[in-house]
Amino acid sequence: AAQDEDFGHPEKFCENIPAANWVISATVTFTNDDIVPYIEKVNKKDPHSGSIVTSGPTTIKDSNWLLGYSISRQPQFHKQKPNELIVWLYGLYSNTKGNYVKKTMPECDGIELCEEWLYHMGVPESEIKKMAIDATTIPNHMPYITSYFMPRALGDRPKVVPDKSKNLAFIGNFAETERDTVFTTEYSVRTAMEAVYTLLNVDRGVPEVFASAFDVRMLMNAMYYLNDRKKLTELDLPLPEKLIVKEGLKKVKGTYVEELLKKYKLI
Ligand SMILES: Cc1cc2nc3c(=O)[nH]c(=O)nc-3n(C[C@H](O)[C@H](O)[C@H](O)COP(=O)(O)OP(=O)(O)OC[C@H]3O[C@@H](n4cnc5c(N)ncnc54)[C@H](O)[C@@H]3O)c2cc1C
Description:
By secondary structure, the chain is of the alpha+beta class.
């Protein structure tokens, strides 16, 4: 990269990583069912039911570490024993002390990470220590996990097949391809397809990414959630824009657009 612009600017992705960041995750294996009632209370599901338990991550919004957890279909691993329950934890703020464990996540061992989670799950303090010791919690330090998300400009990531390249390609989430979104396995697979098809002149298209940016329903839905679930009239806008919204809403009255705005809770 130091010698040729076509290699991008890798330093953008490994320098200046913010301190308030996700760097720690942990896998907790319980060998008894003491935790089950607490999970059922929050996630309204029996974790041993054989279907996905948390349906995506559950975020503990009051947690100083902004802890989240995800429980996949159990058993998640072939070698997992029937009495085992496996929970995946992570925290998005690595530079703040916990609410129960007064340490930052990187300062904690596995038992302490588990204790903090048990505290947020509502386990009485008198039982937290024993439950955390009975479980096996393996922490993972991933200093560059969010580097895919570092602010970047065009050219910071090399093109999958650089313009002059005949036999060299870049694959994975740090290579530049059109439209796709990082932090996915699909991204890496598409770049590999693009590399092979381009360099070997294979007449095949890379599967399209879902075109959400051109679907007004998706945009409305995203707008609602990105604005903290506010309606259009509740947005903190400058006066001229407020007036535009007001006029716009009058114009769409009785139309399909109004129906969509209602459906996506924007009005
Ligand atoms: C905690 C976590 C959760 C995620 N969740 C999801 C999810 O739910 N859905 C999703 O789609 N994506 C998810 N991702 C992202 C996804 O896992 C990655 O984008 C994907 O695995 C990248 O694949 P890859 O083959 O490009 O790179 P990698 O899987 O990173 O493979 C690169 C390989 O290169 C090896 N390597 C590095 N340097 C060298 C070297 N010098 N010589 C030889 N080998 C080397 C590494 O050891 C590694 O095996 C998640 C990632 C993490 C970390």
